[in-house]
Write a structure and sequence with these properties.
The complex is a heterodimer of chains A (339) and B (257). Chain A has 339 residues and is an all-alpha fold. Chain A has one domain: ABC transporter involved in vitamin B12 uptake, BtuC (Orthogonal Bundle), CATH 1.10.3470.10. In chain A, strand 1 and strand 2 form a beta hairpin. Chain B is α/β, with parallel strands linked by helices. Helix content of chain B is 34%, strand content 27%. Chain B has a 6-stranded mixed beta sheet, with helices on both faces. In chain B, helix 6 links the parallel strand 7 and strand 8. The longest helix of chain B has 17 residues. The chains are: A mainly alpha (339), B alpha/beta (257). At the A-B interface, helix 9 and helix 10 of A face helix 2, strand 6 and helix 3 of B.
Chain lengths: 339, 257
């Protein structure tokens, strides 16, 4: 497959993302023209309702989509590099399945009080999801780490085992739920950005910036790791330290994403894959390009989610898969033709 | 300046892989390790490169215990070419070779030049922009050889440099076997210490200063090819009847089976 220039793709995405975000500001149940957009920004005379919709609802939601998309896609790129497996995704380390149990537990245990128990303006569900995700990752990591280091294969298997246990616990919790809880659980599992608030945005943005500031330091190490662990060590990479650092950062990033936006699938698995097909596996470019592409996809999917069934809206997670998967299949077909 | 393994034993899951092995690899010399499959050759390489801790004995590198060098320092002095490298991601050849420059801070311009020269040296310039995943076995191995050569391309101020090769010629055709041995010889002349595991006794005889013969986890013989390669030894170690002749041109021993 012929490659695109890596720098070119990053620049193109850096232009596309703001454009898509700006367009996204105008769409929704209430459609707002570009004229109103700039009027609301610059003058006091603007309609109060429009200004509320833009700055209290849409803007935080778009920013949340950008951060969640960027974190899911960049952690996906990192995990695929670390596991030397293009089919790896952040959920492999147990974070998503653990978060799912945490969230369900909170929904079922808290029953009807779910929205009253707020911590830092976050729901109990979010806190439960984050804790569940982190505990599961820790468990997977501990299972795979012995005196001689962390075995990637054991980690994959442990992730599968933990996911199976989490799946069973989840089923158990759904079994004991009433109709209202069931709906909440399944909506949460579809992934949704509709609850965006400035509190959520600031937490998510902090985490996203932290990850995107720290990942580039390990780009070379990830490139070397693609050769194999002992080859990477012979190139001077402290493999164990890199693994530990990247797994902790991924658990943190994905944990917060899942806590704030539910299970938005697909982005972490397939965005890095598509970007790799386009520009090659060099992590110095793969990580930033994936982050930008993930952010763009999620903003786009979320905009569609707001308009396809007006006046209601769809959970975002449904659309990320519906949009991304056919594109991915098209890429695979094209690649098959060229081999 | 040497790589020194002193009285090494290695036990792994109840097996004695190495028993009281001592070996010295000098800078500027080519040391070839030969022996039957499973004799402990690769295990010894793993121990002297720090990949495995010996159960007993010590390994020193440039007059310091190996473990006292940091990973970065070690990577600037020691390059290791494994028997197989499982790289499933579509790097191009020059990207793979550029990985060999990770331990060095020489800047991208210099690195690109070294990468191009290393590929040229292993007769793989034409592969530069090709994807590693689409190359033949021999092409892959040549690109990996270029990668480890790029890693020790320039002398290092920390100490003498060493290159460890595990069956470097196994995937190569005749001309690339010869090319590899010429490269190894030139490196040694530049002062690099080379250790390689090799199966072809005649290739070993042609290029090695020192020959180490392994058998069942112990060293059977050490010395120059002339001293070591005898009909009795080959019969004892490999169980093969042979005739030792002298190469008509190089005068090195020639094993005919």
């Amino acid at each position: 497959m012929r490659r695109f220039s890596a720098a070119g793709l990053v620049w193109a995405l850096a232009i596309v993302l703001p454009v898509v975000s700006l367009l996204s500001m105008t769409v929704g149940t209430v459609s707002i023209s570009f004229g109103d957009l700039f009027a609301a920004d610059s003058s006091q005379t603007a309609n109060n309702q429009v200004s509320t919709i833009l700055f209290d609802i849409r803007l935080p939601r778009i920013l949340l989509a950008i951060c969640v998309g960027a974190v899911l896609a960049s952690t996906g790129a990192v995990m695929q590099g670390l596991f030397r497996n293009p089919l790896a995704d952040p959920s492999l380390i147990g974070v998503s399945s653990g978060a799912s149990v945490g969230a369900s537990l909170m929904i079922v245990a808290a029953g009807g009080f779910i929205h009253s128990g707020a911590l830092l303006g976050l729901s109990l569900v979010a806190v439960g999801a984050f804790i569940g995700g982190f505990v599961a990752t820790l468990l997977v990591y501990r299972l795979a780490t012995s005196g001689i280091g962390t075995s990637v294969t054991t980690m994959l298997l442990a992730g599968i085992a933990i996911a199976a246990i989490a799946g069973a616990l989840n089923s158990l919790l759904t079994y004991f739920s009433d109709n209202d809880m069931l709906r909440q659980i399944s909506l949460w599992q579809m992934g949704n950005l509709s609850g965006a608030s400035w509190t959520k945005v600031s937490i998510m943005a902090t985490v996203a910036l932290l990850l995107l500031a720290l990942f580039p330091k390990d780009s070379h190490a990830l490139n070397a790791l693609l050769l194999g662990e002992s080859e990477a060590r012979h190139l001077g990479v402290d493999v164990q330290a890199v693994k530990r650092r990247l797994i902790i950062l991924t658990a943190l990033g994905v944990g917060v994403c899942v806590a704030l936006a539910g299970l938005v699938g697909f982005v972490g698995l397939i965005i890095p894959h598509i970007v790799r097909l386009a520009i090659g596996p060099d992590h110095r470019w793969l990580i930033p390009a994936s982050a930008l592409a993930g952010a763009t996809l999620l903003v786009f999917a979320d905009s569609l989610a707001r308009v396809v069934v007006v006046p209601a809206e769809l959970p975002t997670g449904i659309l990320t898969a519906l949009l991304g998967a056919p594109f991915f299949v098209a890429l695979l077909l094209q690649q098959r033709k060229q081999v | 300046m040497t790589m020194l393994a002193d009285n090494i034993s290695l036990h792994l899951s109840g097996f004695d892989l190495l028993r009281n092995v001592s070996i010295e690899v000098e800078a500027g010399k080519v040391t070839a390790i030969v022996g039957p499959n499973g004799a402990g050759k690769s295990s010894l390489l793993k121990v002297i490169t720090g990949e495995m801790e010996p159960s007993k004995g010590t390994v020193s590198f440039n007059q310091q215990p190996l473990s006292q060098w940091s990973l970065e320092q070690k990577a600037q002095m020691l390059a290791v070419l494994p028997q197989h490298t499982l790289l499933n991601f579509p790097f191009t050849a020059d990207e793979v070779v550029a990985l060999g420059r990770i331990p060095h801070q020489t800047g991208s311009v210099k690195d690109a030049q070294i990468v191009a020269e290393a590929l040229e040296l292993v007769d793989a310039s034409y592969l530069q922009k090709r994807f590693y995943t689409q190359m033949s076995g021999g092409e892959k191995q040549r690109v990996q050889l270029a990668r480890v050569l790029a890693q020790i391309w320039q002398p290092c101020e920390l100490g003498e440099q060493f290159l460890v090769l595990d069956e470097p010629t196994s995937a190569f055709d005749l001309s690339h076997q010869k090319l590899t041995l010429d490269i190894v010889r030139n490196l040694a002349d530049r002062g690099v210490g080379v250790v390689m595991v090799i199966h072809d006794l005649n290739l070993a005889s042609r290029c090695a200063d020192n020959l180490v013969v392994f058998n069942g986890g112990v060293i059977e013989a050490v010395g120059s090819p002339e001293e070591v390669l005898t009909e009795q030894l080959i019969d004892k170690v490999f169980g093969v009847k042979s005739i030792i002749a002298s190469h008509p041109v190089t005068k090195r021993p020639l094993v005919i089976t």
